[in-house]
């Protein structure tokens, strides 16, 4: 049987296989879609979770604006609409990347608190420090704290939920011990730094621009870089990722470092934005970041979703919280609405997944 | 090809143990360039372990491992890929959320300027690979929902695109139809003619003789012999593989066959199985055979109520059993021993006693309370009867050998006094000596009037143990064979029949 019959792939070496099976096995396979590239792109966008969540956001804004025009069409309203979600957006982007790898980072609120206080301390002790140096310092400290998380998760083999729950308390504890009863007030901070939190370029706040640039870079990386795609692969099936020979540990480590660094940056921006830092900065914000990511379509078991979705999710969460009071809805119901959104998002995911699985199964049967 | 040059792959006396279990005692394999080398042996002979050592999944404990004459020592699959080794595993390993194309190129995507992933180029390359394989798959669709055969095609496309000098295929044809197998063989031959080395693991002798030029036989984790394919015969290979009498291995004693216990009528689940009718009588062992992914375990899980089914009925002793309700199934007298006993069959970190008493805790508890002494009293006799070799009943199940774990699972269920025992892969991962004990036990139980539905991928086990063999292919029963008619050829033929030809 060593003759070459490469050119005749249909040749039967006498193994006794039926040749009439051709049609069957071809039908079993899933044919390429015949849609044109533009139509394919259009259906992808129309079916995307990002679009539906964006439409919800639009609906909320339209509703709130129709009740009270200044919600969007006033200098303050427009600025708040963009500025308020910016810090959460940074955290949600980092959180999104971590969740895509089938992990979670609950320590971001504490990291943010630490670097927010660090910012104040730096300016208290070195009043002449350039703003950029402070931002970079916060970014690095955050990355270092993220590195601790990532190393424990990637090399310790302990679930991220447990590790980052632990570091949530440890980092917060460090901040509380360090700060004692101190508070950072606006008076302690240079004016130049505080302006960072309020300055706008063509009506768009600088903070928002920073957040969008980060979002664009991370979103681009996830979509078009090998490393980004590997993050999805790791979250989709960690065991398969090992068999593929992907650098699983290094990627997970990098995801946590990114999440930590963005939380560190968010801490500095928080100080710039609000001017005061007390001990409860960022308390519970990690859960908002997780919520934003999940609402935005990042599957909690990893492997799918985009940071664009997480960003829209962050906008939606913050905007709803601002809109509901102006619509005359009580505080209790405001929280309930956020809860309903999260549950709705997860139920929707589940329903769509089940329906998709059924459709694929049926298409196999009928082929 | 150059036969005097160093072989592409050379393994000598390679061994690998997992804790107390010796998976590979002394594996040797020498594969030349431009050759297709078949590796055969029974399940548990150590073939897959050998492959995983070559792939860098496992690190060998001892022995020589050379690639192209250079000694190598892989500690990860990335290293083996780097050295030009591609492996297609028995079970496809794909990322369900990602597109088919991304699955093929993951980790080594084609790049455009600025290290951007070049998606159009990747789609084009994927299309090219698919047309070389003679299949039509949308390169943009997600891997989720692909049939096992399609997934296997993706694996093969992946391996081809890797441009490897050594391609190892661990039972790549197990879930493929005849035409798909032929396509694969054509590709394998063209790769061989390019001077690459291929290792091909298969249970099907017709394929081994059709494709390979050399064959190495393994048994019980050790190298047995290597033959040129034109100097050997299937019967010689069988005797090398088995090395002992089949009758010794499967001590099946004839049992009195009584009234039907389990009756399954027209069981359907969309996309999984269709119109499954089956019957198991008291004292009878019915073997459920079929290829990986044929739906055997799924049928068993549906019968026991773990998974739902869309239509049909399941009855025990003529009484219908509620669907999707394992507790109703247990009350009706069913017992189910799943494939993965460590995860689904045992509370692995509990004692033998706890495990045995677990299912019957209701009947032995007094006023809803359960004491250790009650558990011991209930569990003792069962463990003793099955000769579970543990020094004490409070021994942790995790530390026991596979065979003893299986006995504990069986003991656990026997304590519920079942009428029907469904057992999925009864001897998977159990060493050869203990296998016979499990088989003897099953045979004894049938002799006592228990109805047994046994799922097994090991053909000799099915043929040796079952009174009757049902064969599943793509979710349909394609053959029902009596013990006398059940030959390996008949079963394999039914397992690979396509439903169109069966109609």
Report the count of strand segments of chain B. 20
What separation lies between the terminal Cα atoms of chain A? 34 Å
Q: What gyration radius of chain B follows from the Cα positions, in whole Å? A: 24 Å
Question: Into which percentage range does the β-strand content of chain B fall?
Answer: 15-25%
Give me the CATH fold name of chain A: ABC transporter involved in vitamin B12 uptake, BtuC
State the helical fraction of chain A.
over 70%
Question: How many helices of chain B does DSSP assign?
Answer: 20
Oligomer: heterodimer
Question: What's the SSE blueprint?
Answer:
The complex is a heterodimer of chains A (367) and B (503).
Chain A lengths: L21 H7 L8 H11 L1 H19 L7 H26 L7 H18 L5 H26 L3 H20 L11 H8 L1 E2 L2 E2 H19 L1 H11 L1 H6 L4 H27 L10 H11 L11 H20 L4 H36 L1
Antiparallel strand pairs in A: 1-2
Helix pairs in contact in A: 3-14, 4-9, 4-12, 4-13, 4-14, 5-6, 5-7, 5-12, 6-7, 6-12, 8-12, 9-10, 10-12, 13-14, 13-15, 14-15
Chain B lengths: L8 E10 L2 E11 L3 E6 L6 H9 L6 E6 L2 E2 L5 H6 L2 E4 L11 H6 L13 H15 L14 H14 L4 E5 L7 H16 L3 E5 L3 H7 L2 E6 L2 E7 L5 H9 L3 H4 L10 E10 L3 E9 L3 E6 L5 H9 L6 E6 L2 E2 L5 H7 L1 E4 L3 H5 L6 H7 L2 H4 L7 H14 L16 H13 L5 E5 L7 H16 L3 E5 L3 H7 L2 E6 L2 E7 L5 H9 L2 H4 L1
Parallel strand pairs in B: 3-8, 3-9, 6-7, 7-8, 13-18, 13-19, 16-17, 17-18
Antiparallel strand pairs in B: 1-2, 1-4, 4-5, 9-10, 11-12, 11-14, 14-15, 19-20
Helix pairs in contact in B: 4-5, 13-15, 13-16, 15-16, 16-17
Task: Describe this structure as you would to a colleague.
Chain A has 367 residues and is mainly alpha-helical. Chain A has helices spanning 22-28, 37-47, 49-67, 75-100, 108-125, 131-156, 160-179, 191-198, 206-224, 226-236, 238-243, 248-274, 285-295, 307-326, 331-366, and strands at residues 200-201, 204-205. Helix content of chain A is 72%, strand content 1%. In chain A, helix 4 (75-100) runs antiparallel to helix 12 and helix 6 runs antiparallel to helix 12. Mean pLDDT of chain A is 83; it is low at 1-29. By secondary structure, chain B is of the alpha/beta class. Chain B has helices at 47-55, 77-82, 100-105, 119-133, 148-161, 178-193, 205-211, 234-242, 246-249, 296-304, 326-332, 341-345, 352-358, 361-364, 372-385, 402-414, 432-447, 459-465, 488-496, 499-502, and strands spanning 9-18, 21-31, 35-40, 62-67, 70-71, 85-88, 166-170, 197-201, 214-219, 222-228, 260-269, 273-281, 285-290, 311-316, 319-320, 334-337, 420-424, 451-455, 468-473, 476-482. In chain B, helix 4 packs across helix 5 (148-161) and helix 13 (352-358) packs across helix 15 (372-385). At the A-B interface, helix 1, helix 10, helix 11 and helix 15 of A face helix 2, helix 5, helix 6, helix 7 and helix 20 of B.
């Amino acid at each position: 049987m060593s003759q070459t019959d490469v050119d005749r792939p249909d040749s039967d070496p006498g193994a006794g296989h039926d040749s009439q099976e051709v049609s069957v096995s071809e039908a079993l396979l899933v044919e390429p879609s015949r849609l044109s590239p533009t139509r394919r792109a259009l259906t992808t966008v129309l079916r995307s979770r990002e679009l539906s969540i964006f439409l919800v956001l639009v609906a909320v804004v339209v509703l709130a604006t129709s009740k009270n025009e200044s919600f969007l069409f006033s200098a303050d309203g427009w600025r708040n609409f963009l500025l308020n979600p910016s810090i959460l957006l940074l955290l949600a982007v980092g959180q999104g990347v971590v969740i895509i790898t089938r992990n979670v980072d609950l320590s971001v609120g504490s990291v943010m608190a630490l670097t927010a206080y660090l910012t104040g301390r730096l300016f208290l002790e070195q009043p002449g420090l350039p703003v950029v140096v402070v931002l970079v310092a916060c970014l690095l400290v955050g990355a270092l704290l993220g590195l601790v998380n990532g190393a424990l998760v990637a090399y310790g083999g302990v679930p991220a939920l447990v590790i980052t729950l632990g570091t949530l308390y440890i980092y917060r504890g460090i901040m509380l011990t360090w700060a004692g009863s101190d508070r950072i007030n606006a008076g302690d901070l240079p004016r130049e730094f505080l302006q960072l939190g309020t300055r706008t370029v063509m009506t768009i706040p600088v903070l928002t621009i920073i957040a969008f640039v980060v979002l664009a870079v991370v979103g681009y990386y996830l979509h078009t870089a090998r490393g980004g795609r590997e993050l999805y692969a790791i979250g989709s099936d960690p065991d398969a990722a090992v068999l593929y020979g992907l650098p699983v540990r290094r990627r997970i480590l990098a995801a946590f470092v990114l999440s930590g660094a963005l939380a560190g940056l968010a801490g500095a921006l928080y100080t710039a934005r609000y001017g005061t830092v007390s001990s409860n900065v960022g308390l519970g914000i990690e859960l908002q970041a997780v919520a934003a990511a999940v609402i935005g379509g990042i599957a909690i078991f990893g492997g799918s979703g985009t940071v664009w979705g997480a960003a829209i999710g962050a906008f939606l969460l913050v905007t709803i919280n601002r809109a509901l009071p102006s619509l005359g809805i009580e505080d209790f119901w405001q929280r309930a609405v956020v809860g309903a959104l999260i549950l709705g998002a997860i139920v929707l995911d589940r329903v769509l997944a089940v329906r998709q699985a059924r459709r694929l199964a049926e298409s196999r049967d009928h082929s | 090809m150059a036969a005097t040059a160093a072989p592409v792959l050379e393994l000598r006396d390679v061994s690998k143990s997992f804790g107390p279990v010796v998976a590979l005692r002394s594996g040797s394999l020498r594969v030349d360039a431009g050759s297709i080398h078949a590796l055969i042996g029974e399940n548990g002979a150590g073939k897959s372990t050998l492959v995983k050592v070559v792939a860098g999944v496992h690190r060998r404990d001892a022995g020589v491992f050379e690639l192209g004459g250079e000694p190598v020592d892989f500690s990860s699959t990335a290293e083996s890929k780097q050295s030009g080794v591609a492996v297609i595993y028995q079970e496809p390993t794909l990322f369900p959320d990602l597109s088919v194309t991304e699955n093929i190129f993951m980790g080594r995507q084609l790049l455009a300027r600025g290290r951007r992933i070049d998606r159009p180029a990747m789609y084009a390359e994927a299309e090219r690979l698919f047309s070389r394989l003679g299949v039509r798959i949308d390169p943009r669709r997600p891997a989720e929902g692909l049939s096992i055969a399609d997934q296997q095609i993706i694996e093969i496309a992946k391996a081809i695109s890797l441009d490897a000098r050594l391609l190892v295929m661990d039972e790549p044809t197990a879930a493929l139809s005849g035409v798909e197998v032929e396509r694969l063989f054509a590709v394998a031959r063209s790769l061989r003619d390019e001077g690459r080395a291929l290792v091909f693991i298969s249970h099907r002798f017709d394929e081994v003789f059709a494709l390979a030029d050399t064959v190495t036989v393994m048994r019980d984790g050790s190298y047995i012999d290597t033959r040129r394919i034109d100097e050997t015969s299937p019967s010689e290979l069988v005797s090398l593989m088995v090395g002992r009498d089949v009758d010794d291995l499967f001590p099946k004693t004839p049992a009195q066959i009584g009234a039907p216990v389990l009756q399954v009528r027209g069981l359907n689940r969309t996309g999984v199985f269709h119109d499954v009718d089956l019957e198991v009588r008291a004292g009878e062992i019915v073997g459920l055979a079929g290829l990986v992914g044929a739906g055997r375990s799924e049928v068993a899980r549906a019968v026991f109520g773990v998974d739902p089914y869309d239509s049909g009925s399941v009855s025990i002793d003529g009484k219908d059993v509620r669907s999707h309700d394992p507790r109703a199934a247990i009350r009706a007298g069913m017992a189910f021993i799943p494939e993965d006993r460590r995860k689904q069959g045992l509370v692995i970190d509990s004692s033998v006693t706890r495990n045995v008493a677990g299912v019957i805790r209701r009947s032995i508890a007094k006023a809803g309370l359960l004491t250790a002494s009650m558990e011991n009293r209930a569990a003792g006799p069962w463990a003793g009867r099955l000769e579970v070799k543990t020094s004490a009943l409070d021994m942790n199940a995790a530390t026991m050998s596979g065979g003893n774990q299986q006995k504990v699972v069986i003991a656990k269920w026997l304590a519920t006094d079942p009428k029907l025992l469904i057992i999925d892969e009864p001897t998977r991962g159990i060493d050869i000596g203990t296998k016979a004990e499990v088989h003897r036990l099953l045979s004894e139980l049938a002799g006592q009037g228990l109805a047994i539905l046994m799922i097994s991928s090991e053909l000799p086990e099915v043929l040796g143990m079952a009174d009757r063999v049902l064969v599943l292919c793509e979710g349909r029963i394609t053959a029902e064979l009596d013990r006398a008619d059940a030959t390996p050829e008949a079963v394999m033929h039914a397992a690979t029949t396509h439903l169109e030809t069966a109609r």
